[in-house]
Amino acid sequence: MRSALLLACLIVVPAMAAGEAGPETSRPRGTAPVKRPSALELIAEEEKWTFRAPLNRLDVFIDLEAQLLAENQAKIKAGEVKRDKPVGTPGDQPQGSDIDQLISWAKGEEDRIRLMVSARRYEEAMKTADSALKPLEPHIVRPDVAKIVVSIRTYRAQAEEAKVRDDAQAAFEALKIQILGVLWSQDGLRMAIVDGETRALSVNDRVKDCAVINIDQDRVDFRFVFGRRRFEFPVYVDQTVRAKP
Question: What is the DSSP letter of 96?
Fold first, then answer.
């Protein structure tokens, strides 16, 4: 029995030696053994790899909702920039049928007209208002356009009223009515001494076709008709005449 056990061991040992030496015997002679890369070297190689998607490839991982929202916000922002961008030079009407450009241009004209009225450039303001209203009136049904039209018409009416008054005052001053002094009678009646008149004048008397409507201590108010409209202008007592000895 001891001899049988020894025989089995002799059979297993050569078989194990043959198994371990198997790969070495299959490698050609004179070549170095192939070194397998380590785990760290494999990771480094993977990090060097870059994915390059083919052309027209649809990426299923794109957030389509976020993309649509971003595109919509970009369109809104582009529209706001377009509306805020000045259209042409002041006074030049926009070309084409873009209503947003027309409104932007009209707002600029509205500001120009307001500044003209403030600077007492009434005639220029009226001409600018007429030019601005012409392209806006076909679109007056739009609330945003109607608001601008009403504002421009108001400024034009103010400019026209102020111009007429300035013209009337210039015509009145051209009469060169001069008040030399004011008198009081015992019954409290006030009378004005007007240069060129042979007597003192009271209320409702006329000087150069202007009616006296009020006599105060230092001025006399006259009613003056200009262009079928009535205006009231004061004439103050001439200080140079009162200062004479």
Answer: S
